[in-house]
Amino acid sequence: MWTADECSKYFLCLEGEVFEFRCSTGLLFDVNRQICDFKLNVDNCDITSEVVIPKPLLEKANCPEQDQLGCADGTCLPQEYFCDGSMDCPDGSDEGYCDANDDPNGATPCDPSCVLPNCFCSKDGTKIPGNLHPSQVPQMILLTFDDAINDENWDIYKNKLFPPEYQNPNGCPIRATFFVSHQYNNYQYTQKLWNDGHEIAVHSITHRGPEDWWSSNATIEDWFDEMVGQANILNRFSKIRLEDIKGLRVPFLRVGWNRQFLMMKEFGFLYDSSMVAPFSNPPLWPYTLDHKMPHKCTGNKQVCPSRSYPGVWELPMNQLEVGDFTCGMVDSCPANLSGDDVYKMLVHNFKRHYLSNRAPYGIYFHSTWFKKAEYLNAFQKFLNDVLKQHDVWFVTNWQAIQWIRKPKPLDQLHNFVPWGCKKQLDVSEMACSIPNICKLHSRVFQQDRYLYTCSECPPKYPWIRNEFGLD
Ligand SMILES: [Zn+2]
Q1: What is the pLDDT of residue 38?
Q2: In terms of Cα–Cα distance, which of 322, 239, 232, 299 is closest to 269?
Q3: pLDDT at 15
Q4: Which Cys-Cys disulfides exist here (predicted)?
């Protein structure tokens, strides 16, 4: 027997993707009629069926009112009901065709009213901000690392990739962005990285599967629980200021349509970096989501947003080119590459950026990739090469956005404050040298888990909807 709560949920297959919807309070979903209706009228909720959604008529319905559009069956509804995430047409056609090209309330194409610092776009996404000549643009390199920070990778981060002697042209140590998910994360190490000037960003609490869930099923509430929840955990157990948590990357890069970006706008996340852009020469610059995105939504079965999110930045993931292949994350590049191949790949793609429009060169890692000694060596060799250049900077994602908002030519960068390393920390924000090792019961995993933090141990293992680990 299904509960009323379960019977108010329903699923739609839209353009090959499954979406979860929910009827308004008190209504249940009628599978045969495909509508939400009062309880008394619905007796078929435990039947499952697949639905083919017809295309809505929109303007072709010639609706009597100005701001109305037509469902596939000719029903007229206000335009804002289309692609708002809840089904209003009797045939569901208002929610059936909602990508950036079909959404009748979708973002408009890039236009000249979009100006820095808060809006940035160009027709094909390759334009340099501030119309600088490429020779005046610092070549930014954005290293990012996904998932937990712990003893599996601490030595790599601390000693192999970020020893103090690797420095940017202004004498500050090179910096990167860490997209942190909760399970097995060490919050003392995380706090140290933040203290050192790296950027800590959000990669969800659970990192749950199935992969499709993120793009198709996660509700706005789920997005809040996962992403804002992880920001709260980082704030509580690593003391990271909430205002320093600027961005996120979705697990498996499964972008979550407008639901994800609504959550971001509401909470105040300032950028996403999950969209894998189609391979492009020259590569793409980051852009704001005021207007329609400048590239197709293709990578990794993504469901990109269709609406406008003024001031929210997207740092699209430009792919690496290696022979006939292209790859988003470095570890999704062909597995048979030798260390020498990897070095050549890093240099080749560096040149694709450096010798064209100098769009930020993103290199996206999972730390396990460095376990292959020849890959670590190849990467270090690449680092040593490019650090000799006076116009190459390893910066965090947020540092890159700050430059894009106020582009400064190369000769003015030595005192560009956002790229400095004079961060003022309160004593209470400094990582301890010996953390609390909290042995905590997890109700979800039905076992004990360890949590490393400079803060006090919570009573229970923190998890989604109980991010502070209260009893
Ligand atoms: Zn991940």
Answers
A1: 65
A2: 232
A3: 45
A4: 71-89, 83-98
Return the DSSP state at 20. Answer: E
> Has residue 365 got a pLDDT over 70?
yes
For the chain, give every domain's residue range.
4-95, 129-419
Tell me, in angstroms, the distance from the centre of ligand 1 to residue 110's CA.
Answer: 32
Q: Which residues pair with 365 in a beta bridge?
A: 145
Closest residue by Cα to residue 355 from 281, 277, 285, 286:
281
> DSSP string of 259-286?
HHHHHHHHHT--EE--PBPPP-SSPPPP
Tokens found for residue 170 = 């202004």
- What separation in Å is there between the alpha carbon of 248 and the centre of ligand 1? 11
Q: How far is the CA of 332 from the centre of ligand 1 (A)?
A: 13
Q: What's the half-sphere exposure (Cβ side, CA atoms, 13 Å) at 189?
A: 20
Among 3.40.190.290, 3.30.1240.10, 3.40.50.300, 3.20.20.370, name the CATH number for the domain at 129-419. Answer: 3.20.20.370
Reference 81, options 68, 66, 90, 62; nearest CA is 68
State both tokens at 168.
């940017």
Amino acid at 200: I
| pTM tops 0.85, yes or no | yes
Higher pLDDT, 420 or 10: 420
CA 60 – CA 168 distance, rounded (Å): 58
CB within 8 A of 382, min separation 6: which ones? 343, 346, 347, 350
pLDDT tens digits, one per residue of 374-412: 999 999 999 999 999 999 999 999 999 999 999 999 999
> Could you tell me the distance, in angstroms and rounded to a whole number, from the CA of residue 203 to the centre of ligand 1?
7
β-strand pairing of 447-453 with 436-442:
antiparallel
Report how far ligand 1's centroid is from the alpha carbon of 343 (Å): 24
Over the stretch 159-211, which tens digit does the pLDDT of each residue have?
A: 999 999 999 999 999 999 999 999 999 999 999 999 999 999 999 999 999 99
CA 303 / ligand 1 centre spacing (Å): 18
443 phi and psi angles, rounded to 5 deg: -65, -40
